[in-house]
Fold this protein.
Amino acid sequence: MGKGGESKTKSGVSKKQQQIATDKINTDGGGQIYQLANLDDKELVRWVKEYGVSIGKSKDTRVAMLAALEPYATGILDPNRPAHNLPLEKPKFTLSDIRNAIPKHCFERNLFTSLTHLASDIALVAATFYVGYNYLSGNSFPLWVNVLLWPAYWYLQGAFLTGIWVLAHECGHQGFSPYESVNNFIGTILHSLLLVPYHSWRITHGKHHSNTGSSTNDEVFCPSTRSQMGEAITDSPLVNAFYIVVMLTIGWMPGYLVFNATGPAKYKGKNANHFSPSAVMFTTEQYWQIVQSDIAFLMAFALLCFCVYTFGFSLVAAHYLVPYMITNYHLVLITFLQHTDVYMPHFDDSEWSWLRGALCTVDRSFGSFLDHCFHHIADTHVCHHVFSKIPFYHAAEATEAIKGVVGDYYLQDGTPIALALWRAFSNCKYIDDHEGIVFYKNK
C-alpha cells in the first residue's frame, strides 16, 4: 500500500483535473454535476472496483459510475490519500503466516525494559512540572514570555502524559510484562492518575480489538448507518469544525466513558456507562473489577480535589488539568484516525472475520518526537491489532517484518495529521444500511 501523497500517475488525477473536478463540471446534460467528471473511464472502473459499488443496468455506464462514486469523490480526489483502499478480497494469508514472519524475540515481554520506559516518562513529567512550577508559576519571565511559554508547557506535558497513558494501555493488553497481576496493578495506578477506570476501559478496549472493522459490533467509532443519521448529516465546514472541537475536548471524558459516544448502536438506550458495574458491556463475573476501578478512580479524584483545596484551582488547572485535556485530545485524535478514513471499509457479520478486521486500521506518523512520546502506538498500529501483546519496543521491527506477507493489506498514510483529520471527519459521515462490505460516505 502506498503512502500518502502518491504521484499523479498512480491516481490518474492531475492538479488541473482536481481543480476542475472540485468545481463540479456538469456531465450528463440533465443538470446533475459530479466531482469525478474529469476522470477517464478506466480510472472510474478502478474506483468502482476499489469501493465495490454496484452501478446496475444503465444505458450510460459512465454516468452510472459517476453517480455511484459521488459519495466517495472528495476522498478519491484527495492528493494525499493512499493510492488504494484496503483490498475487498479475503486475505489469502493466515495469522500463522504473519506470525512466522516476525522474529521470535519480538514477542518477548520484559518487565525491566518496560519499567525503564515508565521511569523515563515519569522523569520527563516531573522535570517539566519542576520547570513550570518554579519558573512559569514563579513569574520569572515577563508576561509576554509567559504567554508564549505556557502553551508550550501544556502541550509538552500533555504529550509526556500521553506516553504514560500508552504504557497503561500496554498493561491492559498484558504487553507490559509476562505477569498479569503486575500489569493490572501498574495499569490501575497509571490510568487512575489520568482519571481513567482501568478495568472498565481494559474490558471494552478488548472488545474493540475483538471486533475491529465490524459495522455493528466494533466498540468505538462504530459507524452510523444512513437511517440512523436521518437528516443530521451536514457538509458545512463551520459545523464540521465545531464538532471536531467537541470530539477532541469532551469526546473521551465524559463523551465515551460516561455516555458511550461513538459506541455501537446495540448499546443505544441501555446502560453503557464505564463507571457502572452493571453496564451492558460487562459480565457479572467482571462486576467487582469495575468496582475496584471505580474505587481507584475516586481515590485519584479525591487526591485531585485535595490539591485544588491546598494549592488553588488555577495552579492545579495550569499544571494538571490543561495537560490532562491535551492527553485526552491526543487519545481521541489517535484512536479516531487509526480506524476512520475514506479508504477503510467496515464489514457486516457475513463478511467480517477477525483477521480482516484487525487489518482494518492504518499506520500514521505524528512526527519523530511525538511518535517517541507515544511509544509508537500510532505508527505501528496495524501490527498492534494483529498481535496486541507484542511490546511497543519491538513493534517497529515486527511491523517491517509483516509487510512482505500482508502486502496491499498493510495500510500506511503519510497525510499530515491536520489534513487527515479534516478529510476523515468531513467525508466519513455514515455507511449504507445494506449488508456486506461498506465504506463511509459523505452527504
Notes: Residues 8-77 form one domain. The two ends are 27 Å apart (CA to CA). Residues 136 and 374 are 25 Å apart (CA to CA).
